[in-house]
Write a structure and sequence with these properties.
Layout lengths: L14 H11 L6 H6 L17 H7 L10 H5 L2 H9 L7 E6 L5 E6 L3 E6 L5 E6 L5 E6 L5 E6 L4 E6 L6 E7 L5 E6 L5 E6 L4 E5 L4 E2 L37 E6 L5 E6 L3 E6 L9 E5 L5 E6 L5 E6 L5 E5 L4
Antiparallel strand pairs: 1-2, 2-3, 3-4, 5-6, 6-7, 7-8, 9-10, 10-11, 11-12, 13-14, 14-15, 15-16, 17-18, 18-19
Bound molecules: zinc ion.
Amino acid sequence: MPCIDQKPPGFELTRNTWTTLNRIRTSSGRCADSLYRWGKALTPKCDCSAQRQTVRHIVEECPRRRFPGVFDEFLNASENVLHYINNTLDVSFECISLCFHPFGVALAVGSTEGHLLIINSETGIVVNTIRVCGSPLNCVGYNPTGDLIAIASQNGSIYLFRVSRDGYSYKKSNKIRGAQPLMQLDWSSDSNFLQTVTADYDLSFWDVKTLSPEKSPIAVKDVKWFTHNSTVGFLTAGIWNNRFYPMTSIISTASRSAAHDLLITGDTDGYLRLFRYPCISPKGEYNEEKVYSGTVACARFLFNDRNVVTVGGTDASLMLWQLVEE
Ligand SMILES: [Zn+2]
């Protein structure tokens, strides 16, 4: 047995990079070929049309994401390799927020480690990876014209990036500093304001031009919101303390339809409720379904307003709903 008296190259890397590096070194990653063998994917094929997407295929052959160097570099953990792992391979990010570009061409995804991934929404390929900050990116949102994206973080700050016409290139433009972890975010229809909700359910308004909090509620009284994903707000007050369910219910997610007439909410007990929007009165009626045993992590209307997608918080199950007339 050789005596190993040195740590292997790359040992000091962050856990995610280190894991991915070793998965490549040992050809044992979570690629389509393995997922297929584990019964978790329908096909072992690569999206480049190769018959088997093995780790070796990804690194050495795949026209979409092969490593632009030699395999030995993985053993030495070269700079090139680290750049490749963190910027080309999408296996190392845990994604927690998601938003479509208004033109539908790109999807922005926020990760727990502060990376924003931009995905081509037709092919599913990661076209860009941007380092935003070192904290989880809890929510992301494009403005109505799609030339700006706001990213709200666990560290309380909102990062603003300029977006290219095609939705694939991003340039940092500004930062609004806050102190409380941000959980939800909405743009105003004129792109002048943002509203955010903290982990403690505090609603705040931000002036995007001056990069400062808008303290006067009068100034934002008549603001029209492009989306309404905030779980608190004047026009959604009836989803809290509603007389038909316990006062203790905690609303974990909300989403208004594109036509501004419906509101879907989810709570920490797994209930999904459909209200008319606006929902101001605690006597507001609704349709209810309970399908999750734990928190509903997110509920969103799809573009056509006829379908709703929901995500379970602990069971990670994704459900697609269809809205029907009664
Ligand atoms: Zn391929």
